[in-house]
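Take a minute with the sequence and C-alpha cells given here and flag any C-alpha cell that looks odd. Thanks in advance.
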Amino acid sequence: MNREIERNPPSGILAAFILLAAELGLIYFLVEALARGNIVQFISVLLLIIVVTICWRGLFMVQPNEGKVLQLFGAYRGTAYVPGLRFTNPFYSRRAVSVRIRNFESGTLKVNDNSGSPIEIAAVVVWKVVDTAEAVFEVDNFEEFVSIQSEAALRNLASSYPYDTDNEDEPSLRSHTQAMSDSLRGEIQDRLDKAGVEVIEARISHLAYAPEIAQAMLRRQQAGAIIAARTRIVEGAVGMVEMALEELSRKQLVALDEERKAAMVSNLLVVLCSEEHTQPIINTGSLY
C-alpha cells in the first residue's frame, strides 16, 4: 500500500524572482546576439530561455488545509502541505486533495430491520482525508467510495437491529441512538481505512417505518403504550390498597372480615384504575 510521505518544498517567492531575473537577462543577451549576428550565442541563449521557461512550471500554490500529491512520471514522490507559493521539480505532476472536514447525507434507504419490518433510514457522515496517498492511489474515486461504503454500512446496521423493542435492555434503532451512532461510525471506519479517510461522526438523520406499514405500526405502538400505562396503574393501585389495609389493621380502626376486605379492595381498585371520575355512594345504614 502507498503510504503518505510529507514533503516541504522550498518557498517559490525567491525562485520566482530568480527565474524572472534570469529570463530578463537571457532576453537581453538574445537580442544582443541577434544584433551581432552571432548564431552560436543566439542558439545557446535561446536554449537557456527554453530551460528557464520550463522551470517556471515548478511553481505551484498550496491552499490552507490542502495537500498537493507530487508524482514524477507516475511514481509517488510525496505530499506538500505547507500553504503558500512553493517550488519543486518542474516535471512533477501535482494533484490537489482537500483535507478539510466534509459531510454528506445519504439518500433515504428502504431496508428490512432485524425483525423483517420495512423501514426508511438515512444518515449524516462527517469525514476527512488523513492520508492523501491512500486516498489517491488505493481507490479509484475516494469521494464516491466514501458515499457507497457509508450507505452499505448503514444498510447493514439497519438489518442488524430492530426498529423498536419492548425490552429496554435490548438495543434498537429508535431507542439507543448513541449506541447506533457509535456502531455505524465504527463500521464505516473499518470500510474506509484502506482509502486514507477518517470518519469523525456518523449519525442517523432519518428513521421511520415504510409507508405501507406505518399505520399498523403506529397502532401497535399505541397499544403497547396503553398496556404499559395500564400495568403501571394497576401496580400502583395494588400497592395503595395493600398499604391501606395494613394501616387499618395496624391502627385497629375497624375490623373487617374477608368479604368486606374483598369489597373494599374492589372499590379502591375501581376508584384508582378508572379513567372516569368516580361518584361515591354514601351508606348511611349499618355496615352489615
